[in-house]
Specification:
The chain is α+β, with helices and mostly antiparallel strands.
Length: 241
């Protein structure tokens, strides 16, 4: 949620949408992919966790955001620390372990091309933010960071459309792409695509199939959201009796 402040009011703009001119708003890729079927296992998980499901999802989202933000800060040249000088913990043990796994992966990166790049496609009428474009063994990789317990089909669709958007915007070629899974159960070191507790799950070979699935999912989302637009809410900044 993006918040704009002035002295009298607070304006809240729904971040599920992207715009270049504040007039035309396109949904984010992840918003579109919310229309993809969750499947049997997700429904069983909801039944199992019941009223705790929202809390679990919220905590997982916060964990992912913390790890993402730490990696972005590091890639932008900042020092990332676990404990401050006064002993304050900035990350949980689980988060720090995943940050350490990223650092192990990063030893294989030859150069960083883009970090947290915003994508916007007139052609596909969609927006998004990619995590990393980098060089590994002389090839250009598009990589998305994932901290989830499992890998889901929507990750493949997300990166398929990201590749199209990036190449359209920059006219630069993506050679390979996949997710850097920082919560994997791998026990062996097989650089550059795998280490202890992390791996790159590549989707390059299934690009056209996954792109087609994204387009089908987009058609479903459009059917259910014919007049989509962001929720632009304004609130007063103070009250006084």
């Amino acid at each position: 949620m993006r918040i704009f402040k002035n002295l009298n009011k607070i304006q809240v703009l729904d971040e599920r949408f992207y715009t270049l001119d504040n007039e035309r708003f396109f949904p984010s890729v992840t918003t579109v992919l919310s229309a993809y079927p969750k499947g049997y296992h997700f429904n069983e998980w909801l039944k199992k966790n019941g009223t705790d499901a929202d809390t679990i999802l919220k905590e997982a989202g916060e964990q992912g955001s913390n790890v993402h933000n730490a990696i972005e800060s590091f890639l932008n040249g900042n020092e990332v620390v676990w404990f401050t000088n006064d002993g304050h913990e900035l990350f949980t043990l689980k988060e720090w372990q995943m940050i350490c796994k990223f650092m192990d992966f990063y030893k294989n990166v030859q150069s960083v091309e883009n970090v947290e790049m915003q994508l916007f496609s007139e052609k596909h009428k969609v927006g998004g933010t990619l995590d990393l474009i980098c060089k590994i063994n002389g090839e250009t990789w598009l990589i998305d960071f994932k901290t989830s317990n499992g890998l889901y089909k929507t990750y493949e669709l997300q990166l398929a459309i990201y590749k199209e958007m990036y190449q359209d915007m920059t006219e630069k070629k993506i050679d390979r792409y996949g997710v850097l899974w920082l919560n994997a159960a791998t026990r062996t070191d097989k650089p550059p695509l795998q280490g202890v507790g992390w791996q790159i799950k590549e989707f390059t070979d299934f690009h056209q199939h996954n792109l087609n699935l994204y387009q089908y999912t987009r058609a479903l989302w459009d059917e259910e959201n014919p007049n989509f637009k962001p929720k632009n809410l304004e609130y007063p900044n103070s009250f006084k009796k």
